[in-house]
Amino acid sequence: MRNSVRADRVLVNYTVTCVGYLFLLLIGATPATDVLKPLLMPRLAVALSASAHPVRLPRLLLGALLASCAGDTFLLFGGAWFLVGMGGFAAAHVCYVAFFVRRGALRDRRRLLRTAAPYAVLWVLLITLLWPDLASGLRIPLAGYSLLLTGTAVSSACAGRRTGLGGALFLLSDSLIASGLAHWPQLPVADVWVMATYLLGQYLLASGATADPPIGGVGPTVEGEVGGSVVLSSG
Questions:
Q1: Nearest-CA neighbor of 214 among 138, 159, 135, 174?
Q2: Overall domain count for the chain
Q3: Over 80: is that where the pLDDT of 211 sits?
Q4: In this structure, is residue 225 part of a structural domain?
Q5: Cα gap 14→33, rounded to integer Å
Q6: pTM beyond 0.90
Q7: Residue 60: which domain range?
Q8: Residue 125 included in any domain
Q9: What is the distance between the alpha carbons of residues 5 and 10, in angstroms, rounded to a whole number?
C-alpha cells in the first residue's frame, strides 16, 4: 500500500511537470522551458521506477529515456547541434526496438507483417513528400532517423496496444517536426502539439513496456531481469 501511494505521488508529480512545461511553452516562457525540458525524461524514469516493486528498470528502457534526454538537450542549441540531437533520439529508438524485440515483438510473424506494411507505406510516402522541401544536409539523416522511428512504431505495436499507441504518437510528434523543417504550413502553437504528443507517446511507450508481460513468455520481465536492471531512487 505504501509503495502504491508513493508511486501514485511520483507519477502525479511527473504529470504536473509535463502540464507545467506545456503551459510555459504555450505562453512563450523560453528560458523556463529550456531549463525544464532536459529534466522531463529523467523524471519519467524516476516515476516508472517508483511504480515498480522492487524499484527497477531494464537497462534498454532506461537507455531509451536517457538518450531521449540527450536529444532533448542538444536540440535546444539549434544549428549543427540539431543533428547531434537527432542522433540522441536515434539511439533511443535503437534501445526501444531492441527492448521490444527481446520481449517477443517479432514472435507473431503475421501480426508483424500486418503492422509493418502500413507503416512502411507511410514512411515511403512521408520521405517522398518531404524530400524536395528539405535542406540537402538533412535529407539522408532524416530518412535514416525516420526509419528507426518507424521501427519503434512497428515493434511497439506488435508488443501491445498501449505501447503501440505510444509509438504512433512519437511518430506523429516527429512528423510534425519534419514538416516544420520542410517549411510546410504549421498548426497553431505547433511546438505545443509536438511536445504534447511526444510526452504522451514516451509515457505510453515506457509505462506500457514496464506494465505488460513479455509476449509468449519470452524475454526478461521488469522485475526479473537479472544483471540487466537499474535501480533508481526518486529522492
A1: 159
A2: 1
A3: no
A4: no
A5: 15
A6: no
A7: 2-220
A8: yes
A9: 9
